[in-house]
TrEMBL record:
Catalytic activity, as annotated: coproporphyrinogen III + 3 O2 = coproporphyrin III + 3 H2O2
UniProt lineage: Bacteria, Bacillati, Actinomycetota, Actinomycetes, Micromonosporales
The protein's enzyme class: oxidoreductase
GO biological process: heme biosynthetic process
Record protein name field: Coproporphyrinogen III oxidase
Localization (cell): Cytoplasm
Main location: cytoplasm
Keyword Amino-acid biosynthesis listed: no
UniProt keyword Ribonucleoprotein, yes or no: no
UniProt pathway annotation: Porphyrin-containing compound metabolism; protoheme biosynthesis
Cofactor(s) required for function per UniProt: FAD
One matching Pfam family: Amino_oxidase
Protein's organism: Micromonospora nigra
Length: 469
């Protein structure tokens, strides 16, 4: 008969909760799972709130339906496991725009995160350099190479394609700069194709062909009732004991397992566990590992993060275009980097009173000083810039909300994947019953974080001797 385990999950974001669900499903009966969350709220960047009497997302708003191989994504599988599949809804308006030269222009088709697979289609917003993407007789990328996305695209197609297309697309996801972000980590399908193809356009087309999408197949989904329902369902399914406002400050070996020091310095509590999932950002994880696995700590501790603020306004019957939203290149000189027209994009959020919810994302990597403004100032700037981009004065908001996510978006510089692989190998060799999970490692996005948590759980199960199921 299998002996029940004691497993600590440090971090109550979606990666940690996905790990807890997988552990509950696969660990021996009677296993005790405890989730330690240093804040008062679970879910990490999944946070559903209320504005003007209706639900709204103050964090992530959607997830990818498919994985890179074309199957259902890890979060869709988790949603099915949790019995929430009937709540999945899709955008009713999918067309987005770019704010270029003071006007909104549809985002061109045929691109991969802004990198063109058809140069003619992008001509409406950017002019690729002539004859820049020539076949040089060898693959664009060596077998073990990694470069920044911006460096590759600038060299092949010129500055304008990066500044007007690729940078705002990547900035909308990572709040970072194309010239700093790793191709291998942020665009792995393109990186794989670039190791074979001799032109960038050819690599984009090969990457797109490797993950075909059936006509009419939705790309994105969310949950009616908000993504907070996913958080609640995961907690319930895991059966875990949840401790909020419980920062884990130390992790030390103890009797073949681990001792966690939890809570404030003046009144610490010591708890023991057989294994630990660290589902926290890279720097807190590195601090916990500094003495235990210094090579692993060094490998992950240098990861930097961008901060953003999400400003949501409730506007009475504004003249919004039939778009899901728009992205803003940094060259436009606006504080806003992206905006979503929630009640246009998501049909289930449309209101009979005509009130519209519009959210803007503010903050690019390296521009943290811009986020020091008070909430009222940020909201006023967003309202003014939205009016300018749309070319019409917007009505005064009846309600607003500013959600600040400090140090929330990892910045994956070239070589990130190799550094993470080396850090994980060092940690596994030294302490196989400690596993890493979260956006710091494989990438951002709900499906990636779910998969990361589930993978960490499987590593723990293997290290402790297999499942009890």
């Amino acid at each position: 008969m299998s002996t029940p385990w004691r497993i600590a999950v440090v971090g109550g974001g979606i990666a940690g909760l996905a790990a807890a669900v997988r552990l509950a499903d696969r660990a021996p009966a009677g296993t005790r799972i405890t989730v330690y969350e240093q804040s008062g709220a679970l879910g990490g960047k999944l946070r559903t709130g209320e504005l003007a009497g209706g639900p709204v997302e103050f964090g992530a708003e959607a997830f990818l339906m498919r994985d890179p191989a074309g199957g259902e994504s890890a979060v869709v599988a988790l949603i099915r496991r949790l019995g929430l599949a009937d709540r999945i809804v899709h955008p009713t308006v999918g067309q987005a725009a770019l704010a270029v030269d003071g006007a909104l222009r549809p985002i061109p088709g045929g691109t991969l995160v802004g990198v063109p697979g058809d140069l003619e289609q992008v001509a409406t917003v950017a002019r690729p350099v002539e004859d820049g993407d020539r076949d040089g007789g060898r693959p664009l990328l060596g077998a073990d190479d990694d470069v920044s996305v911006g460096a590759l695209v600038r060299a092949r197609l010129g500055d304008e394609v990066v500044d007007r297309l690729v940078d705002p697309m990547l900035g909308g996801v990572y709040a970072g700069r194309a010239d700093d972000l790793s191709l291998v980590t942020t665009m792995p399908a393109l990186a794989r194709a670039a190791r074979v193809e001799h032109t960038l356009v050819g690599a984009v087309r090969a990457a797109q062909a490797a993950a075909p999408r059936a006509p009419g197949q939705p790309v994105f989904g969310t949950l009616a009732g908000g993504l907070g329902t996913l958080v609640d369902a995961a907690v319930a399914a895991s059966g875990a004991t949840v401790r909020r406002d419980a920062a884990v400050r130390e992790l030390t070996p103890a009797g073949g397992g681990w001792r966690l020091t939890v809570g404030p310095t003046r009144d610490p509590q010591h708890v023991e566990a057989d294994a630990v999932v660290l589902a926290v950002p890279a720097r807190p994880a590195a601090r916990l590992l500094t003495d235990l696995a210094p090579d692993a700590a060094t490998g992950i501790g240098g990861l930097d993060y961008a901060s953003v603020a999400l400003v949501t306004l409730a506007l009475p019957e504004p003249p919004l275009p039939e778009l899901s939203g728009f992205l803003v290149p940094g060259t436009e000189g606006l504080l806003i980097k992206a905006s979503t027209f929630f009640t246009v994009k998501w049909g289930h959020l449309r209101r009979p009173d005509g009130l519209a919810l519009v959210r803007a994302s503010v903050g690019r990597y390296g521009e943290e000083a811009q986020l020091q403004r008070p909430d009222e100032d940020l909201a006023a700037v967003v309202h003014r810039e939205l009016s300018a981009v749309l070319g019409v004065p917007l009505p005064a908001p009846v309600a607003g909300h500013v959600q600040r996510w400090g140090g929330s978006l990892p910045q994956y510089t070239p070589g990130h994947r190799d550094r993470v692989a080396a850090a994980r190998a060092a940690l596994r060799a030294a302490h196989p019953t400690v596993a890493l999970a979260g956006a710091a490692y494989e990438g951002v996005g709900i499906p990636v974080c779910v998969r990361s948590g589930e993978t960490a759980a499987e590593e723990i199960i293997t290290a402790l001797g297999g499942s009890g199921t």
